[in-house]
Amino acid sequence: MESNLIFSESQKINESVRNGKVLIGSINEDNKPNFMTIGWGMIGNIWYMPVFITYIRPSRYTYKNIMNNPNFTVNVFLDDLHQNILDKCGSISFYKKNKIQEFDIEYEFNSNKIPYHPDSDIILDCRVVYKEDLNKYEINKEVKNKYYSNNDYHKAFYGKILEYRSKNG
Prior knowledge:
With 169 residues, the chain is α+β, with helices and mostly antiparallel strands. It has a single domain, classed as Electron Transport, Fmn-binding Protein, Chain A (Pnp Oxidase, Chain A), CATH 2.30.110.10. It is 25% helix and 36% strand. It has a 7-stranded antiparallel β-sheet with strand order 2-1-5-8-9-4-3. It is globular, with a radius of gyration of 15 Å. Keywords: Membrane, Transmembrane, Transmembrane helix. This is Flavin reductase like domain-containing protein. InterPro entries: Flavin_Rdtase-like_dom, Flavoredoxin, Split_barrel_FMN-bd.
């Protein structure tokens, strides 16, 4: 895989993350697909490998999935055509309903049997190489008060990018 190609797209990917236009794809213990919209994450380089770092709270269904199976997909949308899907996957938990089935959300499986959305502009297939709980004692008080008033701290998942696919080749 060509790391330079991934890094050349990192600005688009990070902008889509910031705008809530990215889905994380995972599977549960019954191999049922799940998507979750994320707003926190980034492309990076650690140990001389390209990684996507995503932050997921332990209360999220996707957290359990990735803890059980370290493979996940990053599904990047560069426009607003799929905002309805992003909204549903960002507000409805699989704990409450199977949103993929209920809303007929399209998906396909990659070679690791992890779901991806076929209309994504960019797809990253990732495998966790490192995970770390955010240290509540090291978080700035202002940030802690704004995002962690209920003590539901994120875990950072560093996913080595195994494959990169783009609609633009």
